[in-house]
Amino acid sequence: MKHFYPFIFLLYCFSFFSCEEEAEGGFTLLTEEIVNVNGTRAIILGRILAFQNVAIQEHGFQFALTADFSDAIDVKLGERSRPGNFVGETELLLLGREYFVRGFAQTESGLIYGNVLSFFTLEPTVEKFFPATQFAGEIITVLGRGFESTSEVFFGDAKGQVIDVAFGSQIRVRVPPRQASISVPVKVVTGAKVAFAERPFKYPTGTYELLDIRIDQIRFRNNVYFKQGSRFFVGLGVDFRSNFIPEIYSFTPGDNEWKPTGYPGEPKRKAIYSHTGFFGGGYKGFGTSAPYSEDFWKYENGEYQSIASPNFRFADGLGSEVSGKFLAMGGLLEVGSLVREFNPLLGNWNNLPNLPYDVTGDMLNFTYQNKLYIIDKDKILWEHDPSTASAVAKTVYPSPFIKTVSDFGGLAIVKGDKAYIGMYNSVREFWELDLKTFEWAAKNPFPGEIKAENTAIFEHEGQLYFLRSLQFADYTEFWRFDPDAF
User: Fold this and answer.
1) Considering only CA atoms, which of 424, 333, 436 is closest in space to residue 383?
2) Strands, DSSP E only, in 303-406?
3) Which pLDDT tens digit goes with each residue over 394-413?
4) Which H or E element spans position 6?
5) How far apart are CA 365 and CA 367, in angstroms?
6) Mean pLDDT calculated for residue range 233-256
7) Beta-carbon contacts of residue 467 (< 8 Å; ≥ 6 apart)
8) pLDDT tens, 57-76?
9) Cα 240 to Cα 233, 244, 428, 475, distances in angstroms
10) Within 10 Å of residue 486's Cβ, how many Cβ atoms?
């Protein structure tokens, strides 16, 4: 059996020789493979088949637009004495045309040609670019095909600075300054060919306005906040001197001041709360053995209603309302993944399956279409369905975290099909997340005082409002943010 394999190899070699006319000098020339075609560039593989050295004065490839090879482009690779493969390339082709190619070899006896192959050069095409939104001076990546080293990228009429072109399919380009519009078409110009991206590029938007409405003599920490109708509510927690704040204040857009609401319960800090009016738990003091606050509340129809306490202590955890029910989750007192659900129609608490991860009050969360979303300490955004206990990682928050420095204190809120997330501790970045596609878009950075703690965020008539407690002043700032303005 071992003598059978050399016999097969000989048959294989003879089969090649039978396909092409053998040149004088004992070799066969093959145009073997079109390795790569990109725009005006093509790479071709040829092979010289022989059982001995060869005497070739010149070899290479010919490219032509016609099968008779009139007006051919010659790619010469020099003399050669050994059989084997050889590779040639050219960047002189036209875009979107059919080409014919063949190998050639010049010997003392004459010019020998290999078999003919054909291929089409590619029309430049833009498939996508990312990120979809970026600041002027930063870099985006354009993906497609048929790009060349001379390709240019335009944002509307403004030309971007091409950093590099890789493999004919990827261009890194620096975004030019914004001109008149925030949304502009992206086009790649290669020679006389123009390729457009399907979607426009968008410059970051978002304007901030510091309102002349502030809460004097109070700087909130570890507080709760929620919204009902057109009214905003914020309160409880402690101030920067660790004094408990016994009240919850409300504000209605159009008014000029925050007003106390007459909260009847006990002061507390690090309570869990939904952004819809449920809250409770937390601490009544400080230290590792601080007394626990048992009372839970629901604000509805202009009044505070006491609700039952769960059979589990919740402090420094997460709260949310999903499908009309109040979820209490995790925290630092007991099991960090535990979930309890309060049914306001029945007035009781139910056990739900645990989360697959522990959660604490410094993690951002929001709800969308009866799903709960949580950003964990690894920046992963999880989509959680409380009814099935399923958790799916959807995307990663794009800004960096610094442990114990900037992985807490952020803001998150939903407006329509977009979530607005960011402004973690000591950073200015704010992001828009498309909840249909889970693509991130940068917003203009926050311009105010960075040494402050976020206290609350609300949405009203397409505008976002947020409170920040300054570290070095005796009041709470009140800001309005228009995410689409520029």
Assistant:
1) 436
2) 303-307, 318-322, 325-329, 339-343, 348-352, 365-368, 371-375, 380-385, 390-396
3) 999 999 999 989 999 999 99
4) helix 4-19
5) 7
6) 94
7) 215, 220, 225, 234, 454, 455, 456, 457, 476, 477, 478, 479
8) 999 999 999 999 999 999 99
9) 20, 10, 22, 11
10) 12
Assigned token pair, 131: 């990120």
| pLDDT at residue 15 in the model | 40
> DSSP string spanning 15-38?
HHHHHSPPBTTTBEEEEEEEEEEE
Dist CA 34 CA 421 (whole Å): 49
Q: What are phi and psi of 136, to 5 degrees?
A: -60, 135
Output the pTM of the full model: 0.80
**Residue-averaged pLDDT of the chain:** 91
Q: Is the pLDDT of residue 17 over 50?
A: no
CA–CA dist 444, 428 (Å, integer): 9
Q: What is the pLDDT of residue 19?
A: 43
Beta-ladder partners of 314: none
The helix (H) or strand (E) run that includes residue 466 is strand 463-470
Q: Which amino acid, residue 300?
A: E
The answer to whether 226 and 279 have CB atoms below 8 angstroms apart is yes
CA angle at 435 for the pair 434 and 436, rounded to the nearest 5° = 90
Confidence of residue 91 (pLDDT cuts 50, 70, 90): confident
Return the closest-CA partner of residue 226 out of 312, 307, 300: 300
Contact 60, 77 (CB under 8 A): yes
Structure tokens at 154: 């335009």
Question: Does the CA dihedral 398-399-405-408 come out positive or negative?
Answer: negative
Q: Comparing C-alpha atoms, which of 441, 463, 447 is closest to residue 203?
A: 441
How confident is residue 288, by pLDDT bands cut at 50, 70 and 90?
confident
**Per-residue tokens: 348:** 């009781």
